[in-house]
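Propose amino acids for all 496 sites.
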């Protein structure tokens, strides 16, 4: 039942050469002095080596527009930092794994920072959106701090929401973290853009079916607590995924049936009582502009959704025109209720929650004690507080770490939603909807598709127990989950 758009990024055969301006001011290059010392040279010599190298773009990955550049002199080949920074400034030029890279936006990162460029590495208003493409060649050109600051004064173009006068939601309170999401934007991995999209895809499809939308119409994803909003026209909405406290004009209403809302009413999607993410579908869908084939929010890069960010007070969110099916269902909304069993709620209310995965190549590189701990032998791991849409961290460091002869120099490889990574610190990370496209940490395994909804609905502090299964069992469980969802969707498409 996966009806996501299969947009394919355009392929360009022209190879370009780029001279990229880079400022090596020490205030913009936190690791410049340390890297020079580790390489046994002066800062001036290091800058000369960087600017004298002819670099080639091996791939674009990790983040939209992030280039992996080969061709560094061997003296500059360094492993990653032992501990990644929680935030690296946009434009940072960095070294690790014998390569150079450039962070397009502010993000976590474990490479050594040696400079900063004012160049805009990724821009959705540009075709192609990534400044650099595989096989392009790059040479750094040193510029002064004055020139860098002047270049940074040029503001990038902005995209207007062009919201219509009618059929808009006015956000009264935005909730803890509310974004516009849909089925994602597959086909742009070559530019470092992951599929992304809604965290709980089954909940999105069920909510859209309840209100008569296309299954992948844009919805609101609300984390832990949802928004309060008003609309000048009558609405049909549905809330699925997490159990949330929903009120219309201060009157409580059931969470999972379709809800008819009169014009001018105030809707409050309150605290999530069970689960982490409530999905709100509105008849007609959220009609923000398509960006790279999707209305989903890419918060790290600031594009898609509503201005590339979470909703804020007084935002006017445009809505699409409701279909005849939506209007018919609005007249009969009370009978459009489904049992929780048919909705396929992923969380049963008991802990620990089960997560099943297929082991990866690094599974046998950790100790037997570490394997038993991860599988919950006598101890269930819990989600750390800093878990988010990029990924969830477990609070259990694995004893003995990992026997990895490539530690710190492991090449980055493609990753996906559900990849279980093991950083050098020994704390596993399970990648979520906003995961990067490549990663250099050891891969312990991959979560099965059937358990992605469970992962999406876990809250910080929830206990989990992982189970290792083989490909055959994973395929059977995924097929069973797909049949269950198909049954629920078929029931929702009965005549009105």
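Proposal:
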């Amino acid at each position: 039942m996966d009806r996501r758009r299969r947009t394919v990024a355009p392929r360009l055969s022209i190879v370009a050469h780029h001279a990229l301006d880079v400022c090596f001011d020490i205030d913009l290059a936190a690791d410049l002095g340390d890297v020079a010392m580790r390489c046994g040279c002066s800062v001036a010599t290091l800058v000369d080596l960087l600017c004298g190298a002819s670099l080639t773009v091996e791939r674009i990955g990790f983040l939209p527009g992030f280039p992996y550049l080969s061709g560094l002199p061997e003296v500059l080949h360094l492993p990653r930092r032992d501990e990644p920074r929680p935030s690296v400034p946009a434009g940072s030029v960095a070294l690790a794994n014998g390569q150079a890279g450039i962070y397009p936006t502010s993000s976590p990162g474990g490479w050594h920072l040696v400079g900063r460029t004012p160049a805009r590495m990724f821009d959705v208003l540009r075709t192609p959106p990534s400044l650099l493409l595989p096989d392009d060649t790059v040479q750094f050109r040193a510029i002064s701090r004055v020139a860098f600051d002047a270049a940074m004064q040029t503001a990038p173009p902005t995209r207007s929401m062009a919201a219509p006068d009618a059929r808009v939601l006015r956000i009264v309170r935005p909730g803890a973290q509310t974004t516009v999401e849909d089925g994602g934007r597959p086909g742009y991995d070559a530019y470092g853009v992951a599929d992304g999209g809604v965290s709980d895809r089954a909940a999105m499809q069920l909510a859209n079916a309840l209100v008569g939308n296309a299954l992948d119409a844009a919805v609101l994803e609300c984390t832990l607590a949802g928004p309060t909003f008003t609309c000048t026209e009558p609405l049909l909405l549905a809330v699925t995924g997490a159990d949330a406290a929903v009120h219309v004009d201060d009157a409580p209403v059931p969470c999972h049936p379709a809800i008819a809302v009169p014009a001018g009413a105030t809707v409050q999607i309150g605290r999530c009582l069970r689960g982490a993410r409530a999905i709100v579908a509105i008849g007609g869908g959220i009609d923000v502009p398509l960006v790279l084939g999707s209305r989903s929010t890419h918060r790290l890069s600031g594009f898609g959704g509503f201005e590339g960010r979470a909703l804020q007070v007084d935002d006017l969110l445009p809505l699409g025109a409701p279909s005849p099916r939506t209007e018919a269902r609005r007249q009969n909304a009370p009978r459009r209720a489904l049992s929780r069993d048919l909705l396929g709620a992923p969380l049963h209310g008991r802990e620990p929650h089960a997560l099943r995965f297929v082991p990866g190549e690094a599974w046998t590189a950790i100790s037997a004690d570490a394997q038993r701990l991860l599988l919950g032998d006598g101890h269930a791991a819990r989600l750390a507080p800093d878990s988010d849409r990029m990924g969830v961290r477990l609070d259990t460091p694995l004893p003995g770490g990992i026997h990895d002869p490539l530690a710190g120099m492991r090449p980055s490889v493609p990753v996906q939603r559900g990849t279980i990574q093991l950083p050098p610190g020994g704390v596993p990370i399970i990648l979520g909807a906003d995961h990067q496209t490549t990663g250099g940490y050891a891969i312990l395994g991959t979560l099965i598709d059937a358990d992605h909804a469970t992962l999406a609905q876990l809250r910080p502090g929830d206990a989990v127990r992982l189970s290792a299964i083989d490909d055959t069992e994973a395929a059977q469980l995924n097929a069973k989950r797909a049949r269950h969802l198909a049954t629920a969707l078929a029931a929702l498409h009965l005549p009105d």
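The chain has nine helices and 29 strands. The longest strand covers residues 266-282.
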